[in-house]
Amino acid sequence: MGDRKVIVFDTTLRDGEQTPGVSFNKEDKYKIAEKLKKLGVDVLEAGFPAASNGDFEAVKNIAENLKEITIAALGRSVKEDIDRAYEALKHAEKSRMHLFIATSDLHIKYKLKMTKDEVLKRAVESIKYAKGKFDEIQFSAEDASRSDYDFLTKVFSEVIDAGASIINVPDTVGYSVPGEFGKMIAYLKKNIPNIDNVILSTHCHNDLGMAVANSLSAIENGADQIEVTVCGIGERAGNAALEEVVMALDTRKDYFNVFHNINKKEIYSTCSLVSEIAGIKLQPNKPIVGVNAFRHQAGVHQHGVMKNRMTYEILNPEDIGIETEHFVLGKLSGRNAFELKVEKLGYKLSHDEIDKAFKKFKELADEKKIVEDEDIVNIIKEQLEKDKK
Ligand code: KIV
Ligand code: ZN
Q1: 292 alpha-carbon distance from chain centroid
Q2: pLDDT by residue (tens digit) across 175-187?
Q3: 142 lines ligand 1 (CB under 6 A)
Q4: Per DSSP, what are the bridge partners of residue 70?
Q5: Nearest atom (ligand 1) to Cα of 239
Q6: β-bridge partners, 100
Q7: 236 CA to middle of ligand 1, Å?
Q8: 209: CA distance to ligand 2 center in Å?
Q9: Is the pLDDT of residue 388 over 80?
Q10: What is the model's pLDDT at position 325?
Q11: ipTM of the assembly?
């Protein structure tokens, strides 16, 4: 185990719910929240109470009933959002107010229609207003990765003085690339004068497919917390996927040398629950939890895995709670994989019978993309019948 802890902040119920077409009701949210607690996330962002009455009720329900976990709620840097979040979170065992305001020139000019000084003032005032109402205050500089570094440093430094104990660096539009994002984290760690004892967090979006890589680069450069969603669901191309970041950290423990609280055996069932409730089918080649993530089709690979699974597998499916079929039988499969499958299906055939059945299997595999178990059982039965005659 490494010596530095990575805090896992899950935002499946907030940013994950911003996935187009996805909406969680109060019951859905509670069911997912219970599972996330079992998974071992450190902080659970339950929603955005000021966004709707429904979300307010859903956050309140989680805060009142789910204990031994920090419950966070998002709000803009305005009094109304803070008051609403306070009402939703006041019975949480440990509450975190997550305030945000944009810091990039683009957002300040076109979206907020404010000056930089006004943004700074608003950020600081909102933290001061929230202080004392919650156990912790987190501040996010929206669009941080496209913000001016000097301004960003100044904003973070002043919100820390005002009472924020967690500062979050979002790559809001998934624009950054790993080397650059890592350097940005290192820069902020070095240049924010009062950053000691403050948690430095990252929040990466996946528009260029780099949310996980950017999060890992941030960790390498000293980030303490990662914000993630289960299966990477979220606005547009989504967020950094919890299961991918965690499995990368563990599989390459030799490289990252950090630890986390995630109970990996719960990963697969958590992803299944979220994808079912969200109504999102996972792509077959999705890393870690896609249906093909641990399947091998090519004969050479199947043969290698039979001798030693490490030849072509860097992850152990059982570690994340998957009971899986490793081999997909198709036209590229070899005789060894076929023989193993026959045995798994409970049949014992002679060498000669296997040869004949394998020939039939290859003929069928030329016609069908994937040969299913029942096709193989039919081939075996036909073969055994023929041999009886
Ligand atoms: O992407 C983003 O910038 C966010 C913030 C509100 C943290 O979701
Ligand atoms: Zn986001």
Answers
A1: 18
A2: 999 999 999 999 9
A3: yes
A4: 43, 94
A5: 1
A6: 76, 140
A7: 13
A8: 14
A9: no
A10: 62
A11: 0.99
Instruction: Write the DSSP assignment of 260-304 as a string of letters.
Output: ----GGGHHHHHHHHHHHHT-PPPTT-TTTSTTTT-B-SHHHHHH
Q: What is the pLDDT of residues 242-263, one digit of tens each?
A: 999 999 999 999 999 999 999 9
Is 292's pLDDT higher than 70?
Answer: yes
Q: How many Å from the N-terminal Cα to the C-terminal Cα in the chain? A: 62
CB of 172 shorter than 6 A to ligand 1: yes
Q: Does residue 17 line the site of ligand 1, with CB under 6 A?
A: no
pLDDT digits (tens, 9 = 90+) for 299-344: 899 899 889 989 999 999 999 998 756 678 888 888 878 888 888 8
Rounded CA gap, 119 and 142, in Å? Answer: 11
CB-side neighbour CA atoms (13 Å) of 3: 0
In ligand 1, the atom with minimum distance to the C-alpha of 11 is: 8
Question: Does 100 contact ligand 1 (Cβ within 6 A)?
Answer: yes
Atom of ligand 1 nearest to the CA of 15: 8
Identify the pLDDT of residue 2: 62
Contact present, 6 and 224 (Cβ < 8 Å): yes
Q: What is the 228 CA–ligand 2 centroid distance (Å)?
A: 9
For ligand 1, atom 5: residue with the closest CA: 142
Q: φ and ψ at 77, to 5 degrees?
A: -75, 60
* CB contact set of 301 (below 8 Å; sequence gap of 6+): 311, 312
- Please tell me the predicted confidence (pLDDT) of residue 1: 54
Residue 296's pLDDT is: 84
For residue 361, name the pLDDT band (cuts at 50, 70, 90): very high
Measured in residues, the chain has a length of 389
Cα distances (Å, whole numbers) of residue 281 to 56, 208, 256, 294: 28, 21, 31, 18
H or E element at residue 38: helix 26-39
Cα distance between residue 183 and residue 164, in whole Å: 23
Centroid of ligand 2 to alpha carbon of 238 (angstroms): 8
Q: Using CA positions, which residue lies closest to atom 2 of ligand 1?
A: 172
pLDDT at 223 over 90: yes
- Average confidence (pLDDT) over 160-174: 98
Q: Which amino acid is at 210?
A: M
In this structure, what is the dihedral angle of CA atoms 278, 283, 285, 286, given to the nearest 10 degrees?
-30
